[in-house]
Amino acid sequence: MIKRIWLLPWIGLLVSLPAAAAWQVNLSPGSTEIARDIRELHMIIFWICVAIGVVVFGVMFWSIIHHRKSRGAEAHHFHENTFVEILWTLIPFGILIAMAVPATATLIRMYDSTEADLDVQITGYQWKWRYQYLGHDIDYFSVLSTPREQINNEAEKGEHYLLEVDNPLVLPAGKKVRFLLTSNDVIHSWWVPDFAVKKDAIPGFVNEAWVIPEEPGIYRGQCTELCGKDHGFMPVVVEVKPQEEFDQWLADARSAAEAQAAAAEQDWSLEQLMERGEQVYNSACAACHLPNGQGVPGAFPALAGSPIATGDIGPHIDIVLHGKAGTAMQAFGAQLDAVDLAAVITYERNAWGNDTGDSVSPQQIAELNQ
Amino acid sequence: MESTLGQNLGDTHHAHGPASGIGRWLFTTNHKDIGSLYLWFSLLMFLTGGTMALLIRAELFQPGLQLVQPEFFNQMTTMHGLIMVFGAVMPAFVGLANWMVPMMIGAPDMALPRMNNWSFWILPFAFAMMISTLFMDGGAPNFGWTFYAPLSTTYAPPSVTFFIFAIHMMGISSIMGAINVIATILNLRAPGMTMMKLPLFVWSWLITAFLLIAVMPVLAGVVTMMLMDIHFGTSFFNAAGGGDPVLFQHVFWFFGHPEVYIMILPAFGIISEIIPTFARKRLFGYASMVYAIGSIAILSFLVWAHHMFTVGLPLAGELFFMFATMLIAVPTGVKVFNWVATMFRGSMTFETPMLFALAFVVLFTIGGFSGLMLAIAPADFQYHDTYFVVAHFHYVLVPGAIFSIMAAAYYWLPKWTGHMINERMGKIHFWLSFVGVNITFFPMHFVGLAGMPRRIPDYALQFADFNSVASVGAFIFGLSQLLFVYNVIVCIRGGARATDRVWEGAHGLEWTLPSPAPYHSFSQPPVVK
Amino acid sequence: MSTASYYVPPQSRWPILASIALFLLAFGAGNLMNALSAGASTGTGWLLLLLGLGMLLAILFGWFRNVVHESMSGMYSEQMDRSFRWGMSWFIFSEVMFFAAFFGTLFYVRNLAVPWLGGEGEKGVSNMLWEGFQAQWPLMTTPDMERFPGPEQIISPWHLPLLNTVLLISSSFTVTIAHKALKLGNRSNIVLWLAVTVLLGASFLVFQAYEYYEAYHHLGLTLHAGIYGATFFILTGFHGMHVTLGTLMLIIIWLRVLKGHFSAEQHFGFEAVAWYWHFVDVVWVGLFLFVYIL
To answer: What ipTM describes this predicted complex?
Structure first.
């Protein structure tokens, strides 16, 4: 009897629940066929566990209540029963086989990524995702868009706090999309619960996964493999559009890329570069070197007053373009376009009291970044 | 000082009593002294690792960053895991083995007493080195207790080198400790104490020691490869040179999964001692218990990749590891059924050790259920690396391993100290722990299923409510452990005199010795009929 | 199974001192490696490392001297002897598992990782990241030749390695002959055959060192040479360290025989070293097969 007291706080808690989604206690129902199948497997195995639990704990609590010394129970001396022992070895074995059959079937389907309509290469970076639509010339990064102030409790947190990005992955509804996952640095893991797609992004290797999104809408997930400092701050957002809207989006994205290329041909003043550089810095660099350029001693070097950012410009451009092997400093030459690179380098050389007065043009960068 | 035991009882006791002063503890070769050292060390580490856990829970009390920055948060999760696994749980079980194995098999001491002392004294130095990394440039290891490459190699702080050497030292300590346990059990049993008469705690430790010797060298191997990658330019875990980061995980989990059982098999042994005592009835299915432990140990070498279902294993591998993992439920189930059958038609009383043991059976089984769910590979894609996993392994480790250690301490303290424990305080400790542990870890199942990844310092708003509940529970559980410290100290200092048998239903050689047990357990081997 | 008189040693200072020595050794090694990688001064590292190592050797010497004295003065019963035997057997088993980790690594990269990177097998799609890379073993061309330039040549198994195989296998026989001689009480034969064993072991080490020199200076086979070099050196390197240790142990046993230690009935120290030597030998056969020939 006494043992059940532990239930009380739970009952209390359940009663006091505000009727809100905030108390979600189970897997998302899933929005694809595979996700629904997995949810079903989950529920079957859950109820099997509950049933076994009811029987086992039932017998246990019955004994605790009735076979206690204070009730005058005398111990009965039996300590073996081959039949019972074989029975309770075989029955669980049978249950497991029954469970393994549907699980195997689902797994085999999850591994069949053939005949895809669209291939998207997903590359994990510390701490952002890169999406490349293979054969469509579209290639962009997706970075957390929750403002720092919200994280630091200086502003009220928005509805999609930590689950929002600047550029979501856009997919067409009803088409089979194959993901080719890899990583640029450490292991990440790309997860969208509603699709039941979770696959590790392993540097140097490619993993496959696939989805047929059914309903247009916005789906959110997160990186689920510890990938360093900002592991908690690299969400996955997928926007599923009907085919026509997706085609339109593809066309728009392509022309935007062309406009971006054209911008590199313009002349940029120091002020323009500084303004743009600050934005680029905050999304691409501030995670490690911090918004004030102070870095994290021992882990990420400071840029304010650093020999690289205040010395000769050559090595500075070089390290930004090509990274530094064996450290967390990535090669940004492959990530940012010439304008952003020029802007961010210019910004680093003039912000936080570095005041070198140097600036570098997108054209110069484009030449060096061949 | 040299003397041979058993020649002359009176003399040896006189010459071989505990030395005085600090030297007793530094130079001792006595299994009880060394057992106590292990247990005190483990308690200290438990409180240290627990403090880190409370820091983690405090940060997670609300969304947003309040107390710590993400880089320090990662150091805390890493150190919490490492300290609890290698510093709290494992040494506690070794301490219990040191105290109890010789007494249970009728031996004078451990087989290799000097090496026994060395096994222990390596640990404080290893942990001093590991904890000192918190004060180094770049901070302590921040890559999780599973230290996956390349986050732990190319991208690690410089302190990783000291972490690697600390792991090497812990490995040496564990291997020597395990060799000692095996040699003691195989060679020092009293006449008549055949293998199938061994108390289950001894059996479980024999198999645990075998697991330790088999897998600690593999851990040493994998950290050595890390060291080579970091400092000597090799490419074990780097595809650019033909290696594979996933290779790290294979080797690590080949160690890691048996390691999980290293932390639970001795708990099975303890529970199998305690339940019969307080049910006043012999353990049901002794032989099947032994075979179950053996099967679990063998299977533990064949299931490692179930920790890696999402790394992109080939389909055949995925299926093999799923089936093998599901199979483990069978012997584990047998153990639970046997415990329940032992209680059935017994004559039960509910002293503190029994309460912890009963809680163990229920809560460990809940952890086993979530383990069975995690074994289903397709479903694991949804559970993997979420708080569901955190809930699962905390259920098997906290109300599993830790509760069994608490139960063992309350059960054997009267034999160690000669004083009964304060039942009232023990029960208060139990109920606070029990409530605290469930409030902490049960909601983690929910947030995990709802989609919260593990090892994040900040989370989306829909996870907020359960996280605050869990944090409150963590503080209840954490602070109530101070009661345990209090109870132990009170029991050492005084209390009602314990009889030799201590508990009415207790059976076994250790209960034939006086309470407190003499410095040398069995100078003359008892004869077991 | 009798415990009639089991020797429990009195308090001892060796363990705690050995722990301190181990700590200094580990802390020094860590310091040294970090300093080397950061290009900083290595003074402190070396100092602590050597201090720890020296201390550890001195302690082991003293500790074993204690054990030898206890054994010689007849304090060890047969049962004690069995404890030592169990201890040594399980220690060797732990060493087997240490090597198993590296052999496992070798099999994994050869049969899975490298073929995948080269476009074969279930994860062959990975080859899209390494265009032009082809799987082969020995891996002469790595996926990224700039960072890990593959070896120009590898070591032919039929020259030095074959010779080394012959040396080590014969040394297993010579140590067995010495053991037989010990059982028969033929002291001069023990001394002779142990000396031959030590010489065989030492020449193995000399040839191995020469092979490393060749590998580094003429074949481009280095630790940096991709996964082939990494597995080659970690396996042969740790084996070489074990041979070194085994040779030292043989020398100590040899000196003890000269001093008149060991009887035909009681000579576990001798046997332990012989076991260890056989173990090192077996590992070499594995190496010769899987690292050099196949």
So the answer is: 0.95
